Structure formats: C-alpha cells, structure tokens
Amino acid sequence: MVDPHLHQTVVALERRRRLYSALTIVVVALILVSGYAQAESMNSGGFIQGLRKFFDYPQDIVAAAWDRGGEFFVIVWEFIPALIDTLNIAATATLLGGALAVVLAFLSTRNLDVWPPLIPVVRRSMDIMRTFPELILALFLIFVLGASSVPAMIAVAVHTVGALGKLFSEVNENVSRQPIEGLEAAGANWMQRMRFAVLPQVLPNYTSYFLLRFEINVRASAILGFVGAGGLGAELRRSIGWGSGHETAALLLLLFVSIMIIDQTSAYLRRALAGDGALPWQRLKGAAA
Amino acid sequence: MRVEALRKEFGSTVAVQDISFTVDSPQMIGIIGRSGAGKSTLLRMINHLTPATSGRVMVDGRDILTLKGRARRDWQRDCAMIFQQFNLVPRLDVLTNVMLGRLNRHSTAASLLKMFGADDIARALHALERLGIVDQALKRAEDLSGGQQQRVAIARALTQEPRMVLADEPIASLDPMSAQVVMDALRQIHERDGLTVICNLHTLDTARTYCDRVIGMRAGEMVFDGPAEALTPEMAREIYGAEQAFDESLTSTSLPGAVPAPEATAPQPAPALQAVRVGT
C-alpha cells in the first residue's frame, strides 16, 4: 500500500503542473493574438489579403517567361556571366576562408599540444568572425571599399573562417593521439606532427564540411548581390525592381538549377568520403594495390 | 648510457622510484613486471616523451633529460621507440609511414610538402624488405594485421637510424606467431646493427629467450637486474609478487616447440621491389 501522504503530494504536484501548463498556453495565445493585431494595424496590407496574393507574383513571372517562348533560353544564357560571378565569389571565399580556418582550428584544439593560453584567444576570435552575418559585414565593407565582388568575397570569407574553424576544431578533438605520439617519439616537430599524424585523420571530414560550406556560400553570394556585390543577386534586384518578369524567371531558374547541381555533387562526394573507397578512382587504386 | 636515480611521480603516487642502471655495451635488455609496475613510464622518460620528476639519463656525458627543442627531438630520433599499439598513421600508406622516421632530418618546409627524396624512399623500402613486408608498401597501414603493423613500426624506427631502440610492450597486442616474428626482428636489430634494444615485456619466457639482461620492476622499484639465466622462479615470484602457486607457463605465449632463431629471420624475397611504383 502506497503511503497516502505521498499519494496526496504527488496528486497536488500534478494538479499544479497542469495549472501552469494551461496558464502558459493562455499567455502564449494572448501574445500571438495581440502581436498579430498590432502588426495588422501597423502594416500597409493585411496579412490575410497578402497571403491570397502570395501566388500572384510567381504566376506573373512564369507567364512573362512563357510569352517569350524560345527566346527565354537566350535570356538564361545571357545571365551565365552573372552566375559565374556569384560562383567566383563563393569559391574564392570558401578557399581563403577554409585555409585560414584550418590554421585556426589547429591552434584552438586542446589535445594537439598547442600552447594553452593561445586556445581561448583563437576560439573567441573565431566566435567573433562567426557572429557577424555576411549581409551586415558586406554592407559595411561595400560602404568602405565600394560596390564590387571583393567586399562580398571578404564578407563571406570572414564568416567562413569562423564557421568552418569551429567545425574543424571539433573534428580535431576526436583524433587519435597514438600517431601523434609515434611521431613525437621519432623526433618530429609540431608542424610535422600536425601535418602527418593529424591531417590524414581529419582530412575526409574537413572536405565534407568544406563542400557543405561551399553550398551555403553560393547562396550567401547570390543574396549579397542585393546589396551591391554584383553577380546573380544584383541582376535579380534590377529585374525585380524594373518589373521585368521574364528576366526574374530566368535568374531564378539559373540559381535554382545551379544550386541543385552543386547540392547533388557535394552530397555525392561527401557520401563517398564518409565511406572509404566509394569513389571510382579510389576503387581503381584499391584494385591496383 | 647511464640512468641515475630516475623518478616519476604522478600526483602523490610514485610511478618510478629512483631507478639506476648502466648500459655500457650494446645489449638486449628486457624489462619485466606486472602491469602498472612503471615499465612504460621508465621507457617514456628515457625517450623524453614524458618528463621525469628527478634523476638523470646520461648519454655521451650530457643529461638528455635537460635537452629542449631541436636537441631534444634529435635525441628522440636517436632513441627510436616502438609502441604496443604501433602508433602508425592509419590512413597513410605503409611506405609513407616508414619514411616518417626521416622527418627529423628534414626541414619543416620540405617535409610539410611531403617531399621525401629518392634516398628516403630507398631507405624505407630497404627497411621494409628487411622486415619481410615490402610487398605491403603501398597498402594503407590500417589495412594490415597487427603483426604487420608492428613490423612497419620497427621499419620506421630503423629509418630513424637510431642509436638505441626502446620497445614498449611490442608484442602485447599480438598473437603468438606474430609476437615471435616481431621479437625475432628486434633481436636481429640488436645482433646485426649492434644497437641496444630495451624491451618491456609481459612474459617471462620471452625475456629469457630473447634478452641478455633482465631488469625486474615491482611497484616502481627495480627488484632485479642481471643476466637472463639468473632469473630463477623464486626471483620471478618476487618480481610479480605472486603466491607459491605461481606458474610461469600460465603467462607464456610462446608456441610449443617453436625454437627461437634470432638469425633465422631471413627477409622474405621481395618480388615486388622493382615493380613498386613510389607515389609522388
């Protein structure tokens, strides 16, 4: 038989818990309703009307593209340089940012015999680089350096250092110490130990994160065009602003297709890296050995 | 080499208690004792992987424990170390692993670009051939069996061109057959190259079979130092702190009837040597 006192206590606690849950739901509902009413009174169109118009614009631009017929693909072709511009920004930023991230990741990992006081310093500086959204950084740099691809590239690269550096550092934390010790006992210096005992262990994961970051950076670079960094984003802003529906459709198609291709390719490469010997040339090498 | 009152404390526990011994001429020395007796710590201090609390290790009139930076790494090169878990780089191929023994002799810049010269490649292949695994040269280290990996580790030690070899439980993770091959290889390094080999061992019979001199350790203290023949069952009981019922054959991993033949480890022919294409 359960102690009746304990039983009562539990029942009382349970009741209080339910009361609090109910109160929470009521408060959240009130906040939502009042917030919606507030927004409704402040915005120029209403939310419900806006929702109904949501599909009007896509319809318009698809219709505009349809009217052009075969000429539409010529327009798509003419935007290829803009696409290359955007891809360039993303690729350069990913390469530069990734390279610096590797260095900082090694300097911010505890189990790699780094001078201990250095670790928090490097970590905090990576945190700071990660905190600024690319857009804010790009706006600032474009103000300073003028509207071109370079400030956008720097903005994306800085964010990449912060983001990749943290991920790389987490990979580093999981390496086996045995090869490091083996090389230390053979008289190898720190750089040599990192290069030969750590890098081979972490490289597959690095590559995977690197490809993922490239995908993200392609999107980021396209967006940065809106604030004056050139590439697809700039064209997109122009065509939307001028109400040039067929051009908008062409740009969106280009962006969509290229991101899809990059996504699929990098997903394939990452899968292959996760499972050793899954790439065609690795299979060949395996067969030859 | 003269070890003088070498001591290591981890917090309040004393892992190695004022050990002293001298190695005048090249010898094959076996250090035996229970797990936790301080055998590994002793070897790691000699290689300078672990700093000692006090004591000296005198080589050529200088205390190697005071060495720093470049001089310390040069000593580590001269005093090659072999580990129980092999400590190879699993994802690199065997040949590169062996060439990593040359790192100390290269500038940082050149080695970071993985620029090993033809000389390094020749040395590495020669070492692998000597250990009978040159046909595995282009496989990844992690794809080899334990015994083969330990031989790769020995080959790496050889390319360091060391003055002595320390082996920390080199056969504790191996099956009896591989253990014999590895011990034969170490013995051969001692006999052919005239190097001092100091080897931590788990089992008495291995020490008796392969070593000229045996050092027994118990709870961080040296309780025996003498020729292998002087190691009586009574002495063994003392080292292992065992009861009267202690039976040596229980710890034995040797193969019945396997006659240790240190000089008989003729390197296997290396058919693939000419065909091996060295990756750039």
Automatic annotation (TrEMBL), chain A:
InterPro entries associated with the record: MetI-like (IPR000515), MetI-like_sf (IPR035906), PhnE/PtxC (IPR005769)
Protein name per the record: Phosphonate transport system permease protein
Subcellular location(s) per record: Cell membrane
Ranges annotated as spanning the membrane: 19-37, 87-107, 135-158, 248-269
GO cellular component, one term: plasma membrane
Stated family: Belongs to the binding-protein-dependent transport system permease family.
Lipid bilayer topology: Multi-pass membrane protein
Ranges where the ABC transmembrane type-1 domain occurs: 83-266
Main location: membrane
Keywords, ordered alphabetically: Cell membrane, Membrane, Transmembrane, Transmembrane helix, Transport
Key word Transport present: yes
Molecular functions (GO terms): ABC-type phosphonate transporter activity
Matching CDD domains: TM_PBP2 (cd06261)
Gene3D superfamilies noted in UniProt: MetI-like
UniProtKB/TrEMBL annotation, chain B:
Sequence ranges of Low complexity compositional bias: 258-270
Entry-linked SMART domains: AAA
GO MF, one annotated term: ATP hydrolysis activity
Keywords annotated in UniProt: ATP-binding, Cell membrane, Membrane, Nucleotide-binding, Translocase, Transport
Sequence segments annotated as region (Disordered): 251-270
Organism: Roseospirillum parvum
Span of domain ABC transporter: 1-244
Protein's name in the database: Phosphonate transport system ATP-binding protein
Annotated Pfam families: ABC_tran
GO CC aspect terms: membrane
Superkingdom field: Bacteria
